[in-house]
Amino acid sequence: MTSDPNNSQDIRLGHADRGFVGKITRLDALVTGSSLSPQELEQRLVEMGFVEGARVEILHEGTIRRDPIAVRVDSTTIALRRSEAMAVIVE
Amino acid sequence: MTTASLRLALVGAPNTGKTSLFNRLTGSTQKVANYPGVTVERKSGSFVTPEGRSVTVLDLPGTYSLRGRSPDEEITRDIVLGRFKGEAVPDLVLCVADATNLRLTLRLVLELKQIGRPMLLVLNMIDIARRRGVTIDLERLSQELGLPVTTAVAVRKGGVDDLLKRTDELMARVQEAQAASQWTAPTIADLKAAQREADRIIAASVTLPAKPDTLTNRIDAVVLHPVWGLAILALILFVMFQAVFSWAQPAMELLSDSFSALGQWIHDVLPEGWGLLQSFLQNGVISGVGSVIVFLPQIIIIFLFILLLEDFGYMARAAFLMDRIMGGAGLHGRAFIPLLSSFACAIPGIMSTRVIDNPRDRLTTILIAPLMTCSARIPVYTLIISAFVPATKVWGWINLQGLVMFGLYAAGITSALTVSAVAKFFLWRDHAPAPFMLELPDYKVPRLRSIAIGIFNRAKAFLYRAGTTILSMMVLIWFLASFPTAPAGAEGPAINYSFAAMIGHALEPLLRPIGFNWQIAVALIPGMAAREVAVAALGTVYSIEGGKEAADAIGQVLAQKWTLATALSLLVWYIFAPQCASTLAVIRRETGSAKWMVVTFVYMLALAYVASFLTFNLAQALGIH
Question: Residues of A with CB below 8 A from B230's CB?
Fold first, then answer.
């Protein structure tokens, strides 16, 4: 289960529930509901600290459709929408 | 001065306490201006080091990288790279990091290292980090980064002593420490590699406590709760507006009494026969400017709340809570902060829309920002409410006047959201929602000094405006209302023969359907310079007409001369009307074209006319006179 991109244990952070704790395995910005280009989205996620190996935890959810989410990424907390969080693959 | 002072630039990610460090270093020497050609705020100041070097400090806009995604971030990049025209390259780059959260800043530090400028890393808020049990091996960190590292507690006196000492040491060697910039825009792979390197350095030099601090999490569990969070946000806004109305009252009465006493003193001191000068000073200058300065306490209270919430770390939470709700109206969560600032004044609000990097989201926010109830409307609302709404209590504790005020604010917000939804539907139907990505900083206890400096700067700007634009408008309206003088033996008040009356009468047929008389028409004209001038103008128009007792209580006069329907119509007019030339000018500057300025003016004017027409006629139909 180390580097197989089609690993069945892979979850998209955008689908995870509050309380989810995991580790980022990779970023895949090709199929998300985001309005950003895949490259731009990936770049922004990396700038906010979403890199492979980082520990993530979903701390809070918004009122409407449980969106956006507040994610603890290692030592920082980032608020983002689920559509962008779809690019973050976690296990 | 023969030796030029050394130039220091503050760079850092958002939420690192960069501004409080800037405040600590420069204190009252701060100057706020704009960079040439763009509307990004340029904050500079100066200080003298212990060894007597004079240093000028530039506080650069916060950024996570040098990529330059927004106009603000481009400024930061261009200045540190020495590419910005008219701005010298800094001698020393002071990179500010939050000691409790080094992760994102260290990546920026690694990127900044490539520009080859002498650099010093400052671990700010080291006191909070230590209290939480975070230990940082400064020597190791400095070694790993290849940079000098120091610590600071920006909010405490003496908290920057070591920083000043290190600045002296580095400045002494500044000339030899130059290297050519090797910076190129990083690729995603570069960014990831830099983040991994930053994480490795943190692992090597920072020891985290066994039990991490959970206070922020515990507060957030309530404050970001899907139900309680929204209730708390609503409560905060409600308290804020009740406070603006009731806390400011004693100070406002004191100011107002002082100005009328001053006017009376001038009146008594000037000899007989100086009637014109007497009238100019008392009715034009003192009562004009005085009636605007009276609102300083309310402006201070609004900014006190905004700055407190910002320092505490709540603003980002408010954006989180509001993102989806505002998203329903086609707005970005980040638009919440500019829109909230617009409650104080649409001008800083519109200028702060620069935090929204999607141009269409930004434009929508700019278009609706003037609908937020700015502080300049407060004088008008206050005057009419206190004249027409009784100061009774509802349910024993809610001030009815405050409740009406709250209703006016609510009407502004509702109409802004509606306009945004309509704009989204008609202007950019094909537009997918822009991303929302925001760091939620740890909560911090707000520091009085920082807030005091912030309030002081804003109060100064307001008073400056009262002293210049508003004073000259007041002199103009006094002139229009006083000349030409009434012919000898004329009947009725002198103002009926003035230019003001001519203009007012000319506009009256247009405004009669919405219940405005010619006096209101006269007051609306100078009100274009700034909304609050309308109050002073009404005062001038009525006091010149009715003598000095009228000037003492404009409200009482209005209550006698206007019907309730007219008063309601004017309140509604003020929710929508584009009565502020400076806002329109800022929209033009920020959008880079006159087109959106005209669009804003026309849509707001149309809304105001229609809404006032409906209000006036409905009120009359219901028999409210």
Answer: 63
**CB B139: neighbour CB atoms within 10 A?**
10
pLDDT in tens, B361-414: 888 999 999 999 887 788 788 888 888 887 777 777 777 888 888 889 899 989
Torsion of CA B595, B596, B600, B601, to 10 degrees: -30
User: How far, in Å, CA of B126 to CA of B99, rounded?
Assistant: 5
Smallest CA–CA distance from A53 into chain B, residue = B196
**Helix, strand and coil in chain A, % to nearest 5:** 20, 30, 50
Residue A31 lies in a domain: yes
In a domain, A6, yes or no: no
For residue A29, the enclosing domain spans 11-90
Token digits for B204?
């090597």
A65 touches B at CB < 8 Å: yes
Torsional sign, CA B36, B38, B43, B47: negative
Residue A80 lies in a domain: yes
Note the pTM of the prediction, 2 decimals: 0.78
- Domains in chain B, CATH or no CATH each: 6-207 (3.40.50.300)
Question: Nearest CB to A60: which of B224, B324, B434?
Answer: B224
Strand ranges in A28-74 using DSSP code E only, listed in sequence order: 55-61, 69-73
Q: Give B183-206 as a 3 state SS string.
A: CCCCCHHHHHHHHHHHHHHHHHHE
ipTM of predicted complex: 0.90
Residue B385 token pair: 């409410």
Tell me which chain A residues have a C-beta less than 8 angstroms from the C-beta of B102. 75
* Total residue count of chain B as it appears in this document: 625
B258-288 pLDDT per residue, tens:
888 888 888 888 877 677 787 788 777 787 6
Q: Are strands B149-152 and B119-124 parallel, antiparallel or unpaired?
A: parallel
Q: Which of B181, B24, B39, B32 is nearest to B592 (CA)?
A: B39
C-beta neighbour count of B433 within 10 angstroms:
18
- Counting the structural domains of chain A, the total is 1
